[in-house]
């Protein structure tokens, strides 16, 4: 069977990369060809600081990465793009109307009441099955003063795909994060689109992972197909969870932590809604039943504030110091609104503690320990919620993404959930992106392969690091504060 190489463009909220994946009968090998930082840019406009994405710079980096991939692999068979969810570019006659807004911009909150004046929160959940997050696209669009000027809206991977190929489409897994897609039919829901106050024609045709979007434009070198993948980064990451047992949960750990499991059908019960669980669309029509929990952004934002004076912080050394902390540290609510916007996270943790009469962390190592303990506590309670709502058994937790390299966090997660943690791959998102392209092209005998077969390819390739709950840790005592939603 034929082997081949494809390029995965994976844009996270804190960094982006272009990775070449080689797929053959032994498995999949990855080779990074480009890596670049990403993050919010504050621009003063309409009398306030607005948070944006520098999507033109991202495009420049993506094009440079693709050029490097093609130079090293002239036989490159395809390109696939994924990114973080919900954010979009507005276009008019094919021209971008300003830089996309960042999901951490506070403006989006104004959209919530506008949408809910037309469709109640309960009906929204019944229709789109999504966790309420004020940055869901449906709310962003309702609050966007420029949306009425546009004739097209494209989510970030679709926007880049259109710049690479000239073809506009809405890839379905990422479309499922907008709040505009029906959780049951997986088509645009006209009532939800109407709730934004915008015309339905704004939205492009839906297409599925594995479809060919188009071919690289001649001005960009031509010839190479662009294949749709699970363009929501979390959808691609879930494809590459190296699970060979169906009774597992996953944590896709990066800027955010997406904690949940894969299901065959959405769960739209009152219990699911009360627990604020999401039903996002996965590759092959699977459902990603999960909760969006805060993530390592709390750590990277803390590091950023400590580095503001010009110092450079060594993350490995900082994590080692956090592992050595023996003093008790506060477990704070990582989902508190106070931690949503960019800024001085350690100062906000101190304020959170002061407001509750708690002792704040006293050193950088203690702050980091407090952040990781708090994330692990949130994972344990979220997992319990997911188990209660679905009635499913969970025997192990797979952690994938950049956070799977954080040994302290993985161990704390094992301790607080009382479950074995299997960590890796780090680049699950890029791997899932590569494998969906490889399947679509029929590389290495993968044509028509099931997701389970793709996961076996990953399991053959990477050996996850196993973390066992510490003998002294009592998962049940950590769970006493967990409310049951069953
Ligand atoms: P995203 O795709 O959301 O941008 P990633 O999956 O790339 O995020 O994960 C980024 C995070 O991974 C960083 O914030 C950092 O906390 C963590 N990370 C990266 N490298 C290491 C490392 N060597 N050790 C521990 N954690 C790491
Ligand atoms: C993770 C992610 C997550 C979304 C958030 C906006 O990168 O795509 O699934 O909730 O970004």
TrEMBL record:
Enzyme Commission number, as recorded: 2.7.1.5
Any one GO molecular-function label of the UniProt entry: ATP binding
This protein's record includes keyword Disulfide bond: yes
Domain Carbohydrate kinase FGGY N-terminal: 7-239
GO biological process, one term: glycerol metabolic process
Pfam families assigned: FGGY_C (PF02782), FGGY_N (PF00370)
Disordered: annotated segments: 465-486
Alphabetical list of CDD domains matching this protein: ASKHA_NBD_FGGY_RhaB-like (cd07771)
Gene3D superfamilies in UniProt: 3.30.420.40
Family per record: Belongs to the FGGY kinase family.
Protein name: Rhamnulokinase
Source organism of the structure: Curtobacterium luteum
């Amino acid at each position: 069977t034929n082997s081949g190489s494809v390029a995965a463009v994976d844009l996270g909220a804190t960094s982006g990369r272009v990775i070449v994946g080689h797929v053959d009968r032994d498995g999949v090998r990855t080779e990074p060809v480009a890596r670049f930082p990403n993050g919010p840019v504050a621009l003063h406009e309409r009398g306030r600081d607005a948070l944006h994405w520098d999507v033109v710079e991202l495009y420049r980096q993506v094009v440079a990465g693709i050029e490097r991939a093609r130079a090293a692999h002239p036989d490159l068979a395809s390109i696939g793009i994924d990114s973080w969810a919900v954010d979009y570019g507005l276009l008019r006659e094919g021209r971008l109307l300003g830089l996309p807004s960042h999901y951490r911009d506070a403006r989006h909150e104004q959209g919530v009441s506008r949408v809910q004046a037309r469709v109640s929160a309960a009906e929204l959940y019944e229709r789109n099955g999504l966790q309420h997050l004020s940055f869901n696209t449906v709310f962003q669009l309702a609050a966007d003063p420029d949306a009425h000027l546009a004739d097209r809206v494209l989510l970030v991977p679709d926007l880049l795909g259109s710049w690479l190929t000239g073809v506009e489409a809405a890839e379905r897994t990422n479309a499922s994060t907008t709040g505009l897609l029906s959780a049951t039919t997986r088509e645009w829901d006209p009532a939800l689109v109407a709730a934004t106050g915008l015309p339905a024609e704004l939205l492009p045709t839906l297409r599925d992972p594995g479809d060919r979007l188009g071919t690289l434009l001649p001005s960009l070198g031509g010839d190479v197909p662009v294949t749709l993948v699970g363009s929501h980064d979390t959808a691609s990451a879930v494809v590459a969870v190296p699970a060979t047992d169906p009774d597992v949960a996953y944590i896709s750990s990066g800027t955010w932590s997406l904690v949940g499991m894969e299901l065959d059908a959405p769960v739209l019960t009152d219990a699911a809604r009360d627990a604020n669980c999401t039903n996002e669309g996965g590759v092959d029509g699977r459902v990603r039943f999960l909760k969006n929990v805060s993530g390592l952004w709390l750590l990277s934002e803390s590091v950023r504030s400590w580095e503001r004076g010009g110092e450079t912080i060594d993350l490995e050394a900082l994590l080692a110091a956090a592992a050595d902390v023996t003093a008790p540290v506060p477990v704070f609510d990582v989902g508190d609104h106070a931690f949503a916007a960019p800024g001085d996270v350690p100062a906000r943790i101190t304020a959170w503690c002061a407001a509750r009469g708690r002792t704040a962390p006293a050193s950088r190592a203690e702050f980091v320990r407090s952040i990781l303990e708090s994330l692990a506590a949130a994972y344990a309670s979220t997992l319990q919620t997911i188990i209660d709502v679905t009635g499913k058994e969970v025997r192990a937790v797979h952690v994938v993404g950049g956070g799977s390299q954080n040994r302290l966090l993985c161990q704390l997660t094992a301790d607080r959930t009382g479950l074995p943690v299997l960590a890796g791959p780090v680049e699950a998102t890029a791997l899932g992106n590569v494998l969906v392209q490889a399947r679509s092209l029929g590389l290495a005998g993968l044509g028509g392969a099931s997701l389970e077969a793709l996961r076996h390819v990953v399991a053959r390739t990477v050996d996850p690091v196993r973390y066992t709950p510490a003998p002294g840790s009592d998962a049940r005592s950590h769970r006493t504060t967990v409310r049951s939603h069953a």
